[in-house]
Amino acid sequence: MKKTISGIRGIFGDDLDLKDIIEFTNNFSVLIKSKKCVVGRDTRPSGKIIQETVSAVLMKNGIDVFDLGMVPTPVVFRESRKYGAGIIISSSHNPIEWNGMKFILEGRGINEGELPSIINHQKILKSKIGQIKKIKSTYVEDARKIIGNVTNSPKIIIDNGGGAAKYFAENLLECIGCNVEMINQELLDCSRGPDPTSDELVELSNATNNKEIGFAFDLDGDRLVVVRNGKKQSPDVTLGLGVAKSLELGYKKFVLSLDTSVSIEKFIKEKGGIVVRSKVGEANVIEDMIKNNSQAGGEGSSAGFILPEFNYCREGILTSGLISSMLKNPEFSEIINYMENYFQIREIIRVNTKFHDKIIENIKNNLLKKYSEVDTRDGVKAIIDEDTWILIRKSNTEDIIRISGESNNEEKCKNIIKDTTQMVKENYDKIR
């Protein structure tokens, strides 16, 4: 079982059961000051029984439940702004046998300071029983107001992956004026896995040859993969397209994670915008957005575009609408052409967690000797030149160290990744 600010996740019936669900929901209840909580789930088979259990515990603790049924994660985030809290029954892009819970307070995911209250036992005082009410979301109407209408009816194909984005993505794109075709509607009749970022998306790729663009979602609809002319685009390109639309809408203040492409930062600055860099991770980006009163941003590694005006979460569905609205605009080709000059490589190395800190410290000392600009806020990032960087980070949940790098020279990028990978492995061999 994984317990992080991104949520509780595990294999249902194995390392995550209803007893765990009851305990975590009970603990979360202490943090709900509004005494109201929105609840929704994705399409996993175990979702309904978990949602029913969550709702019962909340009501037992005197909290009114507003039931959204089967909806994407961004919809629960959106509605939680109205009610004060939310719980999403989902394990995001993990395999179908997994499930979990994401917790929302005042429209944002929980932070590191709130996590202990959820994973450690809390005593609940007896209270009156809460009520349950089924509600419908205004997500599509709200998103349409931001995006506006699309001209020329672009032909778009959506690979739903059997997930909860099913109706919302289709309805949104049709409402703004797109011609939409859907594939992989049902979970049990799906040609691909739950995670579109790791799947080859063969069916969608083939289908985009006669379409202007294709979109693929994970099971809870917060992750988006863009496919164009039969080719999957990098996560950074997806984020870059969201950023380009933000600039078109007049937004100027952005937060980008440390591992986001330098091409996006350069593009923003050329358009007169301001960029703040944050630690990697959706929660860290959002925290810095709130702190700096930023208008947009995200993290390149997960294609996670975030628009605080609309939602404090990674927004796959809204982003698909924003991208669709600019298909005929010069800005679309401009950001694509701009980013094609840069090459990103991301690798992982299996390293026992207990050695992570020592290895990162050794790498930091090595890089400080080689480069004049080194950022140690999140692992260690060396700025090699204005177009080239390398980042080494430990995972908080797995026995891995992540290496990310970028350059406007592909061979240079490959060599830096190779050298850094070798450096990490040599350090690991020395200290274990």
What's the helix count? 14
Q: How many beta strands in the DSSP annotation? A: 22
How many domains comprise the coordinates? Answer: 3
Question: Which spans of ≥5 residues are poorly predicted at pLDDT below 50?
Answer: none
- Percentage of residues in strands: 25-35%
Radius of gyration: 22 Å
Shape: globular
The biggest beta sheet reads: 8 strands, mixed
Q: Compute the average pLDDT.
A: 94
CATH class term of the largest domain: Alpha Beta
The CATH architecture of the largest domain is 3-Layer(aba) Sandwich
What fraction, in percent, of the residue positions are helical? 25-40%
Describe the structure.
By secondary structure, the protein is α/β, with parallel strands linked by helices. The chain folds into three domains: 2-134, Alpha-D-Glucose-1,6-Bisphosphate, Chain A, domain 3; 140-339, 3-Layer(aba) Sandwich (Alpha-D-Glucose-1,6-Bisphosphate, Chain A, domain 3), CATH 3.40.120.10; 343-431, 2-Layer Sandwich (TATA-Binding Protein). The protein is 36% helix and 25% strand. Strand 16 (296-299) and strand 17 form a beta hairpin. The two termini are 26 Å apart.
